[in-house]
Amino acid sequence: MGIVEDLFDAEKRIVGSKQVIKQAESLKGGKVYIAKDADEPLIEKLKEACEKHSIEYDMSHTMQQIGSASGIQVGSACAAVKRQ
Predict the structure, then answer these.
(1) Closest CA to 68 of 12, 15, 11
(2) Residue 69's pLDDT is what?
(3) How far apart are CA 51 and CA 32, in angstroms?
(4) Cα dist from 21 to 1, 2, 18, 48, whole Å
(5) Residue 2: what pLDDT?
(6) Residue 55's pLDDT is what?
(7) CA-CA distance, 34 to 63, in Å (whole number)?
(8) What pLDDT, on a 0 to 100 scale, did the predictor assign at position 1?
(9) Which residues contact 71 (CB under 8 A, 6 or more apart)?
(10) Does residue 1 contact residue 56 with C-beta atoms inside 8 Å?
């Protein structure tokens, strides 16, 4: 499944680094998309949260691509999808 399909359902989507980090524990079995063009300290913080909670992450998209796939008008450093 691609990023657009993953992030399409708003009920399973979390957008923004603060929200993803805050809800990381509830994302087990989910996936986090981290923008490859985000600030390096933020990337490290997001990767650390993913690794701590055994969450799969993908760094092959830009902030603009993640924001667009999430249905917002601006770029986003990350977005996550919850698996049920």
Answers:
(1) 15
(2) 93
(3) 11
(4) 23, 22, 5, 10
(5) 83
(6) 95
(7) 8
(8) 67
(9) 7, 10
(10) no
Listing DSSP states for 5-74 in one string gives: HHH--GGGEEESHHHHHHTGGGGTT-EEEEETTS-HHHHHHHHHHHHHTT-EEEEEE-HHHHHHHTT-SS
Contacts of 15 (CB under 8 A, 6+ apart): 67, 70, 72, 76, 78, 79
Mean pLDDT by 10 residues, the chain (84 residues): 80 92 90 96 97 95 95 95 81
61 and 31 Cβ atoms separated by less than 8 Å: no
Tell the burial category of 73 from Cβ atoms under 10 Å away from its Cβ (0-12, 13-18, 19+). Answer: exposed
What pLDDT is stored for residue 74 in this prediction?
A: 95
Q: What is the reported pLDDT for 42?
A: 97
Determine the Cα–Cα distance for residues 35 and 15; give it in Å rounded to an integer. 12
